[in-house]
Amino acid sequence: MNYKAIIEDVYNTVRNEEDAGKLASYIPELAKVDPEKFGVHFSAIDRFEFGIGDYRDKFSIQSITKVLTLCLAYKILGEKIWERLGVEPSGTPFNSLIQLEADKGVPRNPFINAGALVICDILLSHLDNPKADFLEFIRNVSGNPGLNYSPKIADSEKSVGYRNMALCYFIKSFGNIKNDPLEVLDFYFCSCSLEMDCSELSRTFLFLANGGRKLFDPTPILTKSQTKRVNALMQTCGFYDESGEFSFKVGLPGKSGVGGGIIAIHPSQYSIGVWSPKLNEKGNSFKGMKFLEYFTTNTQLSIF
Amino acid sequence: MNYKAIIEDVYNTVRNEEDAGKLASYIPELAKVDPEKFGVHFSAIDRFEFGIGDYRDKFSIQSITKVLTLCLAYKILGEKIWERLGVEPSGTPFNSLIQLEADKGVPRNPFINAGALVICDILLSHLDNPKADFLEFIRNVSGNPGLNYSPKIADSEKSVGYRNMALCYFIKSFGNIKNDPLEVLDFYFCSCSLEMDCSELSRTFLFLANGGRKLFDPTPILTKSQTKRVNALMQTCGFYDESGEFSFKVGLPGKSGVGGGIIAIHPSQYSIGVWSPKLNEKGNSFKGMKFLEYFTTNTQLSIF
Amino acid sequence: MNYKAIIEDVYNTVRNEEDAGKLASYIPELAKVDPEKFGVHFSAIDRFEFGIGDYRDKFSIQSITKVLTLCLAYKILGEKIWERLGVEPSGTPFNSLIQLEADKGVPRNPFINAGALVICDILLSHLDNPKADFLEFIRNVSGNPGLNYSPKIADSEKSVGYRNMALCYFIKSFGNIKNDPLEVLDFYFCSCSLEMDCSELSRTFLFLANGGRKLFDPTPILTKSQTKRVNALMQTCGFYDESGEFSFKVGLPGKSGVGGGIIAIHPSQYSIGVWSPKLNEKGNSFKGMKFLEYFTTNTQLSIF
Amino acid sequence: MNYKAIIEDVYNTVRNEEDAGKLASYIPELAKVDPEKFGVHFSAIDRFEFGIGDYRDKFSIQSITKVLTLCLAYKILGEKIWERLGVEPSGTPFNSLIQLEADKGVPRNPFINAGALVICDILLSHLDNPKADFLEFIRNVSGNPGLNYSPKIADSEKSVGYRNMALCYFIKSFGNIKNDPLEVLDFYFCSCSLEMDCSELSRTFLFLANGGRKLFDPTPILTKSQTKRVNALMQTCGFYDESGEFSFKVGLPGKSGVGGGIIAIHPSQYSIGVWSPKLNEKGNSFKGMKFLEYFTTNTQLSIF
Known about the structure:
The structure is a homotetramer.
Chain A: H1 3-16, E1 22-23, E2 39-44, E3 49-53, E4 59-60, H2 65-77, H3 98-102, H4 113-126, H5 130-142, H6 151-160, H7 162-173, H8 181-192, E5 195-196, H9 198-205, E6 213-214, E7 217-220, H10 224-237, H11 243-249, E8 254-256, E9 261-266, E10 270-275, E11 278-279, H12 286-299
Helix pairs in contact in A: 1-12, 2-4, 4-7, 4-8, 5-9, 6-8, 7-8, 10-11
């Protein structure tokens, strides 16, 4: 398979298509990003790598972080975390409170905001220095000591994060947040502010295509079974109420962020990071979705 | 991989576990089935086959039929069918009207009852003799001219199918059922009454593991792309509001029926049919789910 | 109080205001009504009566019938009827299935369609000849042997009444409809097709302003307590999800119908029937609501 | 009418009935109240007054305050307040977020918590010293300079008020809270901590039975029209999702609080304050509801 040629071809096709998406406007700092940015980076477990476009520009990975906070909580506590949240797709927008009310404060899955808040709460209870410890975990997983939070983005999101505050207090009212909601929110906003470029993104997540291990390090980050389960969750829940669409058209586990980034995983094969800031109606990168759809169509490879 | 040994091993383990499930009671005829039945049949694209337990006993495949009605409608109309229904998991029980009201009569996906009714409506508009034509399609796909409906089961379901009647009239009120609701319901109940044993089940669905073709017949039933999409839909929507759990624990596309049957597909590898009539709280076969969970755990193979 | 002068004054004011409403379009026969019709008739328990405009034109009273079917069922069975439905406002549109699903088939109150269907089911179980017996009850209450159903309206509504069919089968699926849904629906559509003019309307309902008795007949139709309770229900539930607005602006118990009629009751004082076919967004007569708002404002009398 | 005899009679009957209610447990300070307390006080506009039982014991009026904050906001801004909230019954429990999500942050009415928070927000924007100014308003309306907040109750509620915090941030996320949510919540919890005994309660609310004026003071607190509208709102929305039941059984406008107090108004006649701390399932005083039901049954007087 000539991945390089296919990526170049699809990249050029999508770059020239009209972008019907819009910049995320609700977080002030995100609205300042250059909307024309478009980058892709591919990392295979056979060590082949290839990047194109703005793949070396940093962006805010936002909700893609939710996979990483999940992995750390899962690593620490194992299957016990599922006492606090579910593994079902939500069928409703990412920040819905309706389902949470019906489910008495137990979030449907770790990739909606409610679930990520509960995961952050779990980490707060088990880490000595949550922000520093989580950053160290990310740097270790990525093999990249230069990764960092963006305090400017975190502050910007905190200044308008009323919906997430509502979610966190709501879950607290059901007793499913154990720590002070303000501390949970502070950690949550900080974790979402992680910045990566496409190459860092695809390299960081390659362990999920590799059975839970980094390429050159036999120490497992997650067990094989945990890795499969995280991939399964990305498949069914990674794109809010567009998860079915992504699964249908792209056919790979993945996770999007409101900063316009998407990571997708082909188990036993590769990870691919895509970034384009303008979002479709469901809050997922318009060109990122297009790129991945054409990419798996052209490679004729998906998990299905 | 010694599939035979693994299947035997897992079958014996699960057979001896306590069955916390309950027989479907809402359809009178289904409540008469022997609750202790338990069968498994495996069909690989390399032609290896293996069955164990009650794999030659016929049962009502019920909602598993929804995959087959979808395939026929998809074959006839292509992507146009998605103008009438979606591809997102529903996040609510299989016969919920709530979502349908919010979505103005457009069902979330073809595997909830509402979606299957719309698919039946599409087939009614495009088939000369819907019941006969659909049966011929199934017989052709399975290569088994002996497959048939069970009028007794269809009548039994029709006699108490008030929820499905409500669903059908409700969709009709939004204009998304084109034919007479009574005809749509009649065809729907008939299609759900199809009877197979586990070997017929796994053989019938093998084309979904084989890129859309039967083993010995190059004529495609579905295109490669359609096949992938049907598998993706089974992955995200095949088990009602337990789809995430099945994906998480089993890691294969699949579809369950209230008769206690489950079909699961490993693309490019095999299909496996399981049957045990007692259902868990979500309406899926209790032992069937257990068997498939242990099976993919022991084979250490899933799509993730 | 010079009711005549106030009615004339308000009538002329409202007649000259722009009518932002629209004719009910979903029932074909109702869409044929002259949209400019506007009539009012007032009946006091001191025997004063006054009519203005098109108050002698017959129209389809539609959902106003729900008060009368309730009264007959209440008369026959007493407080036992509340085992089958509630007395709370619904907070949702008149034909919503959402609440019914949450409440397991127990309608919120007798004035939403679901509740009226349950009342019709109760009547079917207790009347020998439901249609004839109900008509006799109405003729007796009104003292008017000329009142009748409109088979044309009933047929027209039945031809498109998919939402009500869905409601009825849905309640049946919870076991809260005891008779054949088709018979319940037939009786329901028939009862809604009752035709009255404004004078017949206000005279028929005067017993609710008179403690449950007709003016010249000491035999109670309802007990005093039942009468108060029916009035209370009209106050809180008579206008679907505009009940609060009507209570707030008009301050009287009342009930509207999709034919453009409204009946309002001032206990111990009068009943007033208003008719204008164009409906506001909530399905209540636009000019009828306006008239009653100005009328109670000008009389400075309401129950509050 | 011998109100004294009827009150004594009903009081003794209800005192001796079993109390199936339970103390509010979610606010720690409220759980310390003596559950056997039971008091009633009646104030008529003809100046007759009568109290029985523990009618001189102070209690936390809690949500009854919502009528008073509404009155002050209505007095200051007039009908403009309805741009920020509705007048419809909610049909759901008092602290539901579901409806708020569907209605984009516009609360259904001023008596659910969401609506009261918006009213507090309005007051914050228009009062120089909100807490002091509101207290002065209450003292003026009641003619009682001794009325006061209970800082202990306010702090107790604030310490566990996660649901209200969630509500407030949620409305803020829709832009319908203009001030800092923490300030709104602080004022809200303070206002709910007002303490009165039954005599203070009935005297304070007598102006709503008197067309908006105090007995001995011609200065209107509200206009006649506003007074009627506040009464209408209490009728349709005063008891959360038991408003219909209260209207049905008691037939008077009223408002309950989680401290076990209830105020009921008979326009042009009287106000009556009842207090008994144990609550029924819907969060309304068990004995308070019973007392008022029997009271209006025995007087044979209600607004209907």
